[in-house]
Amino acid sequence: xxxxxxxxxxxxxxxxxxxxxxxxxxxxxxxxxxxxxxxxxxxxxxxxxxxxxxxxxxxxxxxxxxxxxxxxxxxxxxxxxxxxxxxxxxxxxxxxxxxxxxxxxxxxxxxxxxxxxxxxxxxxxxxxxxxxxxxxxxxxxxxxxxxxxxxxxxxxxxxxxxxxxxxxxxxxxxxxxxxxxxxxxxxxxxxxxxxxxxxxxxxxxxxxxxxxxxxxxxxxxxxxxxxxxxxxxxxxxxxxxxxxxxxxxxxxxxxxxxxxxxxxxxxxxxxxxxxxxxxxxxxxxxxxxxxxxxxxxxxxxxxxxxxxxxxxxxxxxxxxxxxxxxxxxxxxxxxxxxxxxxxxxxxxxxxxxxxxxxxxxxxxxxxxx
Length: 369
Description:
Elements: E1 9-17, H1 21-34, E2 41-46, H2 51-57, H3 63-71, E3 75-80, H4 94-101, E4 106-112, E5 125-131, E6 141-145, E7 151-155, H5 161-187, E8 199-204, H6 212-225, E9 234-239, H7 240-249, E10 256-259, H8 261-271, E11 284-286, E12 291-293, H9 312-324, H10 328-344, H11 358-368
Parallel strand pairs: 1-2, 1-3, 3-12, 5-10, 8-9, 8-10
Antiparallel strand pairs: 4-5, 4-11, 6-7, 11-12
Helix pairs in contact: 1-9, 1-11, 5-6, 7-8, 9-10, 10-11
GO cellular component, one term: mitochondrion
Family: Belongs to the isocitrate and isopropylmalate dehydrogenases family.
Domain Isopropylmalate dehydrogenase-like: 11-365
């Protein structure tokens, strides 16, 4: 993950992209600005990308956006992207391209329960670590026509030991750190509901895809088995279909889950149902030298411009970004303010059964900072 080096100044690329990204990213910026001197002086650099940018200028990810991120920015925030459900010549997802350009090989998605009034749910405090650069998302597809005129569509799935090993290492590092944080909390007298040792669950389907998923499974297992560093981290496996079932039935049994790109995408979006809404779940796209916050929801064109989008996923993503850069106290302040608003229950957007606006929720969080 990006190095947690203390800085005297921060330069953040801000890419709202499409739909409600243009509403929730400004909310996250307001929260970051409200931290004042608790974080380094921060400059926000507006950048373009997305489906709307493609329709304006013929390119979903402008070269200038990539250049500025690589040469001038310390980190970035991404809003949301609209992608057509059918093939459009010349278009490809800018978020997928950004992950490749910046080598953001991990998508890290914490999914944690907060007691929201009127919405009881299972206890959940897990992190899904999704490999971000390969699997079916390498976008190698073709369509062929058979002699009888029928068509066959083919997609190439790529799994490498290199990508699998480094995502496995990140998962074990996250589990190790979570275990240390829980132990520190216990020693300070706090109640920690997770009582066991930290755990990594490897998600795969190698009983069917024995070569590709087999390589992913073996590569991740080798990380745990190749060093004494992770002796205190338990390792288990789940077939992806069993993972989905057990995640909804017993979310409390999972700590850190690591998965190839497609499975990780599906289970992390599904896990959002455990905590009430996609509008609550943050993520970061992380590499060794750069990190980009990204709420996991989509562009939601049906509510675009109505000021009712939930800004919390974007705000929590900003907190996650700060934490990854080493500003853990500031990140904790943001999360505590968000939790207070959710527990109070007065300011909830429609996705959570409330009537508050994007602005209402943002203002309530700012007041608690």
